[in-house]
Write a structure and sequence with these properties.
alpha+beta; 60s Ribosomal Protein L30, Chain: A; six-stranded mixed beta sheet; two-stranded antiparallel ribbon
């Protein structure tokens, strides 16, 4: 199966050799997004909650440019540089999704690109 890439004109430019997302049948795999402001290309200032909201804005641009919404998300992988930030990330997460929530994994990592505090990747499914 050939990869069908999605590049969002509204999201931040990729900072490496990857696509914003790739279709595999009815599944859309979104690359991890960090809290980069698309208008400046720079990491947003602020705590992990505000960074998480920016990450979700960036991911939502990719979803919308693919014809999907946050309601189509079935799996999230969250990467934090400090598990102490989990409650703040979780508060932002809960504002972006409705029940039933997508499946989720959250792990702590040693570091993220550009010094971000959070990175999130998604899997979404096109309704068939």
């Amino acid at each position: 199966m050939a990869r069908r890439a999605v590049e969002s004109a509204r999201g931040p430019a990729a900072i490496g050799p990857y696509s914003h997302a790739v279709w595999a049948g009815d599944l859309l795999y979104l690359s991890g997004q960090t809290p980069i402001d698309p208008s400046t290309g720079r990491l947003v200032d602020g705590d992990v909650e505000s960074q998480t909201m920016r990450v979700f804005d960036n991911l939502e641009f990719v979803l919308l440019d693919s014809g999907l919404t946050m309601e189509d998300v079935i799996k999230c992988n969250v990467y934090l540089t400090a598990m102490a930030d989990f409650p703040a990330m979780n508060a932002a997460y809960q504002r972006r999704f409705a029940q039933p929530y997508p499946a989720r994994t959250t792990v702590a990592v040693a570091g993220l690109p550009l010094g971000a505090k959070v990175e999130i990747e998604l899997v979404a499914r096109r309704a068939g």
